[in-house]
Design goal:
The protein has 365 residues and is α+β, with helices and mostly antiparallel strands. It has 14 helices and 15 strands. It folds into 2 domains: 196 residues, Aldehyde Ferredoxin Oxidoreductase,  A, domain 1 (4-Layer Sandwich), CATH 3.60.9; 136 residues, Aldehyde Ferredoxin Oxidoreductase Protein, subunit A, domain 2. The chain is 37% helix and 22% strand. The radius of gyration is 21 Å and the shape is globular. The mean pLDDT is 97.
Length: 365
């Protein structure tokens, strides 16, 4: 087969056993990889009624069909499982650099089943895999966990949970690259329920496409069209998703006051201007791009807040909405620190802001 490894890795945490499963070509043609392959495997293996935080739930970490090739915007990662937040299908999409590294390590996906007796992390290096003791990592935040794993394999990529995931909070995220989050569906809690602190992958395998010349020509044409329309891309390069922040708080796109308010009335133009992309960009020290991304809409910032110094990923639209209009806050110090703490601890920013907004409304009433 071209374009894929043709196999996935099963990890049975309770037995500390592994199985490599060959995936037929017709399945790849029908479901591709990523989300589609995750749906196929979970639907095949899970019969219904499984406890999302129990041993029978399956956690899948999926590479994408374009991972590992120079296809713009093709470097993302998908995580799937039965969601403990909804009791039904759960998935979370994530940027960063983990997806291509997983694919280059020799597997198109990893599926975890069971619950480990002790905290562990999975290590994969060029097709060789092992479960390693994570006792020293348990209780550490996501940044420290990633630091630890990257010291073991400096050229590798790590996917980790923080303490909220260990405690099975339903708003826990799975983190990589110090702030890129698979945040939705409570899948950090699933990972924590399995006592799986992290996944460390390193891969040097190059997967051959069916027609490399055609692939290169297509990518070249995409880049030509991108450059022709660079003016459309420029705001995203300068401000990222916060290019929309001030307008979104006023035009109804962003929820206001725990979904009860109206942007123009309850938040106002003056507050919207305080959290605009232009204001947030003042803290930017360099651009950041996820794997295979020519846009580089991310940014690293440095900000001295009254709560302490922040040096990490820039606020995104979701953070400004969750910690801004949803809670009627236009204080960038508070918003930036809340964003940083969620990334550090491994909390879904959208859900965290919603919980705070709900608590605020309860207090008011």
């Amino acid at each position: 087969m071209f374009g894929v490894n043709g196999k996935v890795l099963w990890v049975y945490l309770d037995e500390r056993k592994f199985k490599e499963e060959q995936i037929p070509e017709e399945i790849y043609r029908k479901y591709l990889t990523g989300y589609g392959l995750g749906v196929y495997i979970l639907n095949r293996e899970m019969k219904g009624g499984e406890d999302p935080l129990g041993p029978d739930n399956i956690l899948g970490v999926m590479s994408g069909i374009f991972n590992g090739y120079p296809v713009p915007l093709g470097g993302r990662l998908e995580v799937v499982a039965k969601s403990p937040a909804t009791g039904t299908w759960g998935d979370a999409n994530c940027g960063g650099k983990f997806g291509p590294e997983l694919k280059n390590s020799g597997f198109d996906a990893i599926f975890f089943k069971g619950i480990s007796r002790e905290p562990v992390y999975l290590k994969i290096v060029d097709g060789k895999y092992s479960l390693e003791d994570a006792g020293e990592l348990w209780g550490k935040d996501a940044y420290k966990a990633e630091d630890y794993l990257k010291r073991i394999e400096p050229k590798g990529q790590a996917l980790v949970i923080g303490v909220p995931g260990e405690r099975k909070l339903l708003i826990a995220s799975i983190m990589n690259d110090y702030g890129r989050a698979a945040g939705r569906s409570g899948l950090g809690a699933v990972m924590g329920s399995k006592k799986l602190k992290g996944i460390l992958v390193r891969g040097t395998k190059k997967i051959e496409p069916f027609d490399r010349n055609l692939l290169n020509e297509t990518v070249k044409e995409i880049q030509i069209q991108f450059n022709k329309n660079i003016d459309l891309a420029r705001p995203w390069q300068l401000y990222g998703t916060t290019a929309l922040t001030d307008a979104a708080h006023l035009n109804g796109d962003t929820p206001i006051k725990n979904w009860k308010g109206v942007g123009l009335i309850d938040f106002g133009e003056e507050n919207a201007a305080k959290i605009s992309g232009t204001e947030i960009a003042k803290d930017k020290i360099r651009s950041y791009g996820c794997a295979q991304c020519t846009l580089a809409c991310g940014g690293h910032v440095k900000r001295n807040t009254r709560y302490g110094q922040i040096e990490g990923h820039r606020l995104e639209y979701e953070g400004t909405g969750a910690f801004g209009g949803l809670n009627l806050v236009s204080d960038l110090d508070a918003m930036a620190m809340a964003f940083e703490l969620c990334n550090r601890e491994g909390l879904d920013i959208i859900s965290t802001g919603a919980v705070i907004a709900f608590a605020n409304e309860c207090f008011e009433n």
